[in-house]
Design goal:
With 228 residues, this protein is an alpha/beta fold. The protein contains seven helices and 14 strands. The strands form two sheets. The protein has a seven-stranded mixed beta sheet with strand order 6-5-4-3-2-1-14. Strands 7-8-9-10-11-12-13 form a seven-stranded mixed beta sheet. Bound molecules: nickel (II) ion and manganese (II) ion. Nickel (II) ion (NI) binds next to loops. The site of manganese (II) ion has 6 residues, from helix 2.
């Protein structure tokens, strides 16, 4: 599978059969706008980890135009049905798993909050574990470390973990190290940093600390693709 990072937590996963877009905050995201336009994204599947504007982002326009299958928690799927009058969706909740034709998704909890830009409650924030084409990718969502990550590490052989490192709104570099010790992923890739001044991070320092703790660390530039 090919994973292209757009900046912040927006990324696209190309599987053989489908294109999966995650947290499409493009418009107003200075990092992403340099490498992609929301108008150019045509996903078959749209994953939303939570409802905050820096993840929900361009979802309304992309849903209306590209008509993807929307996979998110019950509250987000319900909101999409009511506000966008769009019902090609699949609601899940924390701890649940579903086998789609293109891969298996586990919805994990995330330690964060979730409301839409208009203030509507967005349900519990989540992450996703995607198993497809023999690989396992953990999209952690916006989260702090939580002790049950040790269970996730025991239950899944994670090839790549996309982990927030920007601090302030999510865990920072130290928290991501704690998370890596519990998850034991093959590769760690940072997300949710450098989009705004309050989440600026020295990624070289982060990668150095991750490597000296025994984990592989890959910093992706916006627009860069990782072959998983
Ligand atoms: Ni958030
Ligand atoms: Mn966020």
């Amino acid at each position: 599978m090919l994973v292209t990072y757009f900046g912040h937590s927006a990324l696209q996963i190309e599987l053989n059969s489908v294109i999966v877009l995650v947290d499409p905050f493009i418009t107003g995201n200075g990092l992403a706008e340099k490498v992609v336009s929301a108008d150019d994204l045509n996903p078959d599947v749209l994953l939303l980890t939570h409802a905050h504007g820096d993840h929900w982002g361009d979802a309304p326009a992309i849903i209306k135009r590209a008509k993807p299958l929307v996979v998110a928690n019950h509250e987000i799927v319900t909101y999409v049905g009511r506000e966008l009058e769009y019902n090609k969706s699949h609601g899940m909740n924390s701890g649940g798993k579903y086998d789609f034709a293109w891969g298996t998704l586990h919805q994990t909890r995330a330690e964060h909050s979730s409301s839409f830009p208009d203030g509507t409650y967005g349900g519990h924030p989540n992450g996703f574990i995607l198993e497809a084409e023999g690989k396992t990718v953990y999209l952690m969502g916006d989260t702090a470390p939580f002790a049950e990550m040790a269970w996730i590490g025991e239950d899944h052989n994670i090839d790549v973990a996309f982990m927030p490192i920007g601090d302030n709104f999510t865990m920072g570099p130290a928290g991501s190290l704690r998370a890596a010790r519990m998850l034991r992923p093959g590769i760690t890739v940072p997300v949710h940093y450098n989009t705004f001044p309050v989440i600026e991070v020295d990624t070289d320092g982060w990668a150095r600390d991750m490597k000296s703790a025994g984990f592989e660390a890959r910093v992706l530039a916006p627009g860069e693709t990782l072959d998983v």
